Amino acid sequence: MTLTVFHSGTHAAAPAGVTSALAVRDGRIIALGDDAHALCPAADQLVDLGGGHLGPAFGDGHAHPLFGGLEDDGPQVRACRSVEAIVACVREWAAAHPDAAWIIGASYDSTLAADGLFDAAWLDAVVPDRPVVLRAMDYHTVWANSAALAAAGITAATPEPALGRIVRRADGSPLGTLQEPGAVDLVMDHAPAIADAVRAAALGRATARFAAAGVTWVQDAWVETADLGPYLLAAGRGLLNARLNLAFRADPLRWRGQLAGFAAARERVRELDSPMLGARTVKFFVDGVIESGTAAMLEPYCDTPGDTGLANWDAESLNAAAIEVDRRGFQLHLHAIGDRAVRLALDAIAAVQAVNGPADRRPVIAHLQVVNPADLERFAALGVIANFEPLWAQPDDLMNHLTLPRLGKLRAHQQYPIGTLIRAGVTVSFGSDWPVTHHHPLNGLATAITRSTPDGLPSGGWVPAERIDVADALHAYTAGVAAQAFADHDRGTLAVGLAADLVWLSADPRGLDARSLPDVRVLGTWLEGRRTHAAEPALLAATT
Ligand SMILES: [Zn+2]
User: Fold this and answer.
1) Which end of the chain, N or C, is surrounded by fewer C-beta atoms within 10 Å?
2) Which residues contact residue 82 at a Cβ distance below 8 angstroms, ignoring those fewer than 6 apart?
3) The pTM is what?
4) For residue 511, how far is its CA from the centre of ligand 1 (angstroms)?
5) Rounded to the nearest whole angstrom, what is the distance from the C-alpha of residue 366 to the centroid of ligand 1?
């Protein structure tokens, strides 16, 4: 019956600027304000917030912890600012790891080569004798050297795969850039398997990184049932520092055969009975990404007339798969970037409701880069959770060089309609898509509010009508994600009776200029009263 009282700071249940207290017993919030203060003499632990702020812990509505954790194990090309720098990094890593049969690294910045096209020959120059595969930051694209292409048997004679693109030279031979899972898997299926223990350790590191950012729940948005082992191992050994909910990926070409496997995998997770691991969701990649021209658009891309991109699902099979997945009690999580993909996703959710009848489903459409104005009002009507990655809503290099030239002016302003959907009463949840973009909610908060680059450009915000205020942005990272997780009765706000999922920040975000939010420090994180992060060991020792 441990009683902890947090005091001498602001908290999210009180108005900004009001110093107050909060009491926790056995993982639950039991008192707020004066009632909590009165419990100080009886407390087993007193946590002096030092003028900081206590809020509900953040959630991440869409991320890839396993991919992110594994990035630590290969060449670290993320910070490289040129093709030469990436190649040099690979050369160094290869020299330091002469026994690695394959060199697998992540993630490179696609804007560093014209049109995002990377040549196998550039990697061959430093590693001619072993396969090298680097993932792009979008995780929909890889850059492979000639040894990797050869290991996978990809030549000029290889037909185009279903649901993927082999970028080719004029003579038909593969350039070295492979787009979307259908092409990426041609190579990755030949890479040596990574041991479960190595992947479980990666999950431990990844969730520790989330805990250090104040996050206690993460939607793992892409899990193959064959990869369940590392998750069970990590949860069973107590390695997870944030809760994970798994989304199994439905494959457009073999989804009917996957259904029994999804249910069996969910059953194995249930049997483990860990509060840190759930598996209630199925993921659909409705389309790809705009930068590769693989997002499905209603009208052609501006730079490739006649080309409307690549929908991975036709409407009929997407509807049928969504209905069957829903019938088995899974939540839908649909990746939709282009406006045609968004419409397909909305249509599928409508079909599920029409066929399977009313239920508390909380279907998620993730990313929502371009939404046709005619579809905006359907989100509230269908009860869709709109999941955005707010860091994407800024005019950075990716947007300026690879996105805007493809979309043209009109569609450029239809991107990430966060403000419009919140004003329409839609539940919005935020996420990072880490390692695609930075995992820290404070960075995402700042961008959602300003819609400008870290340099403050443009000054009034990009598509400023879609800017939101700090209260709505915090809500999307807390209560919005909790609703997505079917946990809003238990988390996402500070109230008596709710789980003590808490984040201790160095300052109250509600009183700050949004541009300074990324400077706020996460001093502590608690998951149902258990501390999962302490900024400094000294703080931990003083307060627990
Ligand atoms: Zn993702």
Assistant:
1) N
2) 112
3) 0.92
4) 32
5) 8
